[in-house]
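hi! just following up on the protien thing from before. the input was this:
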Amino acid sequence: MLAAKAHGEDITDLVLLKLLPYAGSASNRAKGAWVHHAPSITSDLRKWYEADGSAYDWKSIGNSIFDFIQRCNNQPTELEQACKYFSELPHTKGFQAGFLTPILNALRSEEFLLINSKSQKTISYFTDQRYSSKLSCYPETNRAGHGLIQILTSEIDLSQKSTLSNADQFDMFCHWLVAVKKFSFSKSRGAQKSAEFFDEIPEEVVINSDCPFTSKTFDLLAELSANPKKTTYLARKDEFKRELEEPFQKLFRQIANQLPDSIKERMETERKLFARIPKNDFNHGGAWDFYWGAFYAKGGKRIEDAQLFLWINNERLEFGFYIGQYGSQQRQRFLKNCQDNREVLYSLLDESLSNSKIWYGSRANPTYFTWEEWLKSPGQLDIHVAISLPQKEVLETSTDELTPQILETYKLLFPLVLLALDDNPMPALAEYLEPDEPIVDIPPINPIYTLAQCADDTHFSAEQLDTWLRAIERKKQAVLYGPPGTGKTFVAQKLAKHLISEGDGFFDVVQFHPAYTYEDFIQGIRPKRVDGGLDYSIVPGRFLEFCKKARQCRDRCVLIIDEINRANLAQVFGELMYLMEYRDAKIHLASGEAFSIPANVRIIGTMNTADRSIALVDHALRRRFAFLYLPPNYEGLRKFHASTGYSVDKLVSQLAQINAQIGDRHYEIGTSFFLRQDIEVQLQSIWQLEIEPYLEEFFFDQPDKVKRFQWEAVKSQLIS
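and the predicted 3d structure came back as:
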């Protein structure tokens, strides 16, 4: 990798496959991934991250991971600075200690401990601390782990002849304690863990300026807690709205936009998401001393359905899974499914849900329970699973840090929702945890299509084609323009075929027309029948669908826009005008979804200049495309008919005379009309039914010129 990077090669795929820890599935082994005993990745990393529709700069991510690992390996004393720098990069959010410490441990096992949920839980238990899985906290966890190893050395190093290091034996000890012994960490330290969960907030809090909430938010909730009356809320209603309700709802809707489709398909993410603070208590004037919202089962109700909730009071912010207090049917279904499938559920979800941050059971219960303990009796302990952040931690966290934390928690806990929704939840659960993979694990590679083959097929020189291809690569989008009959669409398809040659990409064709709109191309509202009524949801257009498919490919993907000039381009492209100029940028669409054009996407348009001159194309659009002119290809016509026996010299001469009379290169007659094996049989028909009507329209006020080029006047020169 060092050599490849030094030569300027793209090492992204190597980094993602060889330096991150994968599960030992058949598909992972087939693609050459680094299989590790403590995996953080089960299937395709890119698909996993991009499941919510977000775009990622994988090249920058790959380079940053490589630089981080190299720095830690070469200068282990700079671990803290390296972790801090990597964690603060805009494109590396979500890469936690479990992703990156296995390779550090493999390179320098004595300096760097492998930190996953098992070792994190063990270190936290024995040191009476709660360590985070964030990479920025890894140096502190690593130090604590090494200190613990020194204390436990006599217990861990059972044999003086052991070839394993103390660090490796500590990793084995953690695995034995959690996975084999299934030690209950709550028995002697539950009360302390509870105290840690709901710690008092120190007076000195460093408030993050990008936090969605402020100290005023919690002050207002504290007032409401001291006096939970409707009058308390109404007296400061505007402040509650500004400091609590509006930022809370904005945060929750941002999370809704990023949920994966597999969750959106089952959960209501748009309507009636938020509760009210005043109680509906028959005019007794009470008020809730907290505020909450929830994604709940479609067609259901927030107060009774299985839900992914967000909840805040004057002490903390909580997010997790719950079944509404009036949801007796769903509670019974959930409990039955847990009882019937307990062993399978524990096996499937233990790795993801055995997390010391997750609180299982009622808020009122001071005892900490593990995932395994809670799964045995969720009805007694309460169907409530959440992560709780104390006020201090909330205020120190930005929206950009808080959003993925809540989002990832919802992804982890959604299997619990499925247990409450389906009488037979296991098929849906299996599909969610391990979506169907293609029958072929390794994407098919497109056949070789060389530049020489492309030149033979298009009858343009390899030098000319190479010039066009370099322009397409430079601008990432180009327009083939020229008069009718010059083979623009055909050439575009052949160029696309060459661009995707020997890769796993694809090309697709869309044709513009005067009625084509932004809603067709980017996204728009489409009515759908739901439960006997109409639901107006935002549906992605052709380009968004194309980009979604392109993100699953590593190599170039080409979209051909035929007749690009026949639509109102400024209207159809919308925000795409910005993204075509700034290819590395991301922009929010009208729906609120963040979107960027994948780096492997190329766009080739075709433009008939007889319909609209290039001079009439919007200047802003012309600046974003390379414009490649296709003239009538007389030499290509000669090459084509070299094998048919038809002598084309007189035909070429006649076409040159006509085009000279036309006198405008944008309206000349091209040669593709005559690229037929049976040209001698079809020539009269082509001339009378295609060429003559075009000339009559162009020379509508010059009938003498039309007469000169009618079939009766030229047939003696064209027929051998």
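Residues 187-204, 436-442 have pLDDT under 50 and may be disordered.
The radius of gyration is 33 Å.
cheers
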